[in-house]
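Hey, resending since the last one bounced:
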Amino acid sequence: MRTTINIIFSVVFLFVVIFPLRVCAETVTLNSDTALVINDNNLWKRLPDKFDPHNIDAIDDWYNKQQAVDSIIGKSGRFVTKLTVVANSTERWFIVPKTNFIDQGLGYYFNPIDSIVITQEFSQLADNKTPQLLHFQAFSLSMNKGEKGELWVVISAQKYPSPVSIKLLNSESFYRFQTVNNVLSVAAIFAMLLLALLTSFIYFGTRNRIAITCAGYLGFHGIGWAVASGLIDDLLNLSFNTVYLGMYIFPLAVAFAAQFVSDLFECKENHRKTYKFLHWLTIASAVAAGVIAFTSFSFAFAVSHIFAMLWISVTIVIGVYMLKLKDFRAKYFLFGNVLYGLSLIYYMLSHSDIFGELDYAESLVVSALAIDCMCIMLSLTEWFKIKQSEYNRNFYLSRLDPLTKLGNRYALNEGISKLGPHYVVVYLDIDGLKKINDNLGHGEGDKLITFVAKYLLETFAAHGSIFRTGGDEFVMLLPLLRFEQLTSKLESTQKLLDILPDKIHEKWAQAGISYGICNSAEQDTPSKCLSQADKRMYLQKEQHRTEHNVLQQ
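The structure tokens again:
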């Protein structure tokens, strides 16, 4: 029963805080258990520049003679509204104009009984005087039960990208709203910047271009939202309004993102049309970033949003296309961008006149973007895994003899460098291979080579490593744990090698082998030991040639 009550209470709270009661009125009744949103419709009146926003008496005379605008979405400049507020309880209230960009914000409360005017400044440049609230500004109002007064709100900005409603929250509702909004935003921005820093370190460690394009992708998104949310200004207390900079930075994020996607899917090598498109998109984004730096914020806002929608469309199309090609680097990439795309749609709808009362749009976008950045990192990890696998495969093949699947000369050099203090080295050569090739063809010669390789592998693989170092030459490295094993190892090795010629003669009567053996007790380095075994192999080969000539006579 208690659990059920808690669930019901939580749901009610969510509806109260996240979906406040929306009204459109000039007289507002404040109840301690209710959160209100005053709709943008016919709420604001444009305040001419000639008026001093601090002269509330002059504004009051002017205000009563003016008509309210339908909505201030898409407009710029200074606007003012007046609300009559009635408190049904003694409470501290917080007033949050729902707009991102405020150059100047003034709140006035006039109590006609006491004839007291309380003035508060809540602009971005004066946020040290107001509650810290990313993406927005707020100011507080304390009222006693039964109190009635006038609330004036004056705002000024270069652009109002969404309908500017006014949210009124009691202390508990505001602090929870503030916590959710700030924690989501700070965590997301910190995650993006941390991931950008990590990929920068990866670049300095690997010098792979994809790491630096990924760092730019993540970093510019993180920096863009850090300034757009007001976090940078809150931390540094700068003398200018930084929140506008996010729109100027965004095209640079798209430029790096386009290059990252091109690198991630190796478009230059495998998808030439996609590569060309992403290349030109990079150039267009970089040029747009340079151009809008000298234009009005309204123009920069429009350009950045166009690039945002274009980029989301591009990423989803490319992600689906790559998944169809079974390129599974796209799985994380596509998931993150679909999530980010949905949040952007929500964000864009919140800036429309129809859906302008959508809550937490900014926090949801930046949170979805942080998840997208994590998915980008997972995609980058997949890229490095693939490259590591390709490197390992190429490394393995570069040290592998393709015919016998034994190690080649490069592998032999590595094997020699890893030998311990005690070992036996065998240098072996196939006799008569040239005659087999000349008389029976190279295919038959290859069969002889693979036959010898198979015998050596089956006989000696458990005791050491076997390498094919030339057309008919093989080397075996047989390490020993103790010096006392040397004599028995020499005897067993020679015995097993002496069996091989008889096995060869069963199929190739004119072929055989010659070998030389040397051990660590005879030479002080493996290289000298190998050279000595090579000389002994050639002495045996000469002996076999002499014996063959005698038999021929």
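The mean pLDDT is 85.

Sorry for the duplicate.
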